[in-house]
Prior knowledge:
mainly alpha; Arc Repressor Mutant, subunit A; disordered N terminus
Amino acid sequence: MSEHEIYRPSGLFGMDCGEAVDALLQYLDGDLTDAKRALIEQHLAACEPCGAAASFERELRAVIADRCHERVPESLVTKIAEAINKERNLGS
């Protein structure tokens, strides 16, 4: 039995590895209930492979946020603003 399999049984840490992986992106986005967030945090702290996956995803997001600074062309921003204003005026 590998270390990763030690943490697989649901209920041992409230969440198995499959459930943790499935909820990881929602967890990192802050889109989980407090109860589910607590379960995944408990699992990530106890399960080294899942905790490593979460750390990798956090680091990847940080690199992408740091390196991807493309700006939307001003002409597109203007067109979107005009379309929003037009829709607002139609609804009035």
